[in-house]
Task: structure prediction
Amino acid sequence: MAIFRRQWVLPTPTDSSPQTINLPNRNLTLVQSAPSQIIWAVGGGKGGIGKTLLTSNLAIFLSWLHKKVIVVDLDLGGANLHTSLGVTSSPHTVGDLLYKNIDNPNSLVQPTQYKNVSLISGSNDPINITNMPPIQRSRLVRKLRELDADFILLDLGAGTSVNTLEFFLLADQKIVVVTPEPTSIENAYRFIKTAFYRLMRNATATPYIRQLIEQTMEDKIIKGISSPKELINEIARLSPSEGEQLKKTMNELSMSLIVNQVRAKAEADIGKSIQIVSERYFGARVNYAGFLPYDNSVWQSIRKRVPFLIDSPNSMAVTHLEETVRNLLKQNKP
Ligand SMILES: Nc1ncnc2c1ncn2[C@@H]1O[C@H](COP(=O)(O)OP(=O)(O)OP(=O)(O)O)[C@@H](O)[C@H]1O
Ligand SMILES: [Mg+2]
Result:
């Protein structure tokens, strides 16, 4: 089924009748409807680059496409997704799944003021939750799949902690956010590389291969291996069938990149460069989905605790977000 749109019908929080908004230069847009229950995770190596901002606005955009969306704050210890959606208090948090023995994750979901966008707030209980044992993490991951929605969007914390990487890898679409600063680019490469290593580690059960992957992950230079691609080549030499399997796993991966806070056209090209470098040196494709300009209306909307799609629907950021979402939807595997 396809959805044809000529203009956006934007439900406002204050008015129950829909408000029609014509966005600039909008042509007929075709959006393929997604297969049921898709998880998108939004991560990235660095803090303050726009992961939460993108998660909340992606959610609003998908809801405009008549999708039922649940956003989950998995920035354990630094939860603030609720604020970006104008939610001030949460009776439940994701921590309740772990510590209150709640079985049905849908009972933790609370509505937002935006139609079809609901939320599971994050827990700000860093002591217990950031050191989550693997068994609890697996349960949480399983429970997320039980949520009743077309799209589940996970807002992740910064960095490459095991929790963050595992949540990132569980998603059908793994979105990496990067800004054009050198520190952010460096962290994005580290994040992508570590995610690839972890994916490979999780995909193999053969003890000596797993050990080789773990040693490489610890930055030990074994047999001159310094990248996921070299690691796969070495594994293929040791065990051709494992090598083939890992190559397949890497090829089937859906990872996308969004460049945020772009101030000049050349900065957006960083997305293409990261895509090329990842393919060449990491041995897996990172699809460059699009960029968002640095836009005053974006940070102004954050101060008002309103997603910029709602607060400033005719801004350049919205035009670019639309293109980015369209590219992300194309990546959805049936
Ligand atoms: N496109 C943009 N234009 C203008 N300002 C932006 C843009 N993107 C992000 N910002 C600014 O960056 C700030 C940080 O955004 P956000 O909280 O989404 O980052 P984050 O990656 O989730 O951070 P953390 O890792 O701490 O959770 C915003 O409050 C906003 O001021
Ligand atoms: Mg955040």
Q: What stands out?
A: The domain at 37-183+257-276+290-328 is CATH 3.40.50.300 (Rossmann fold).
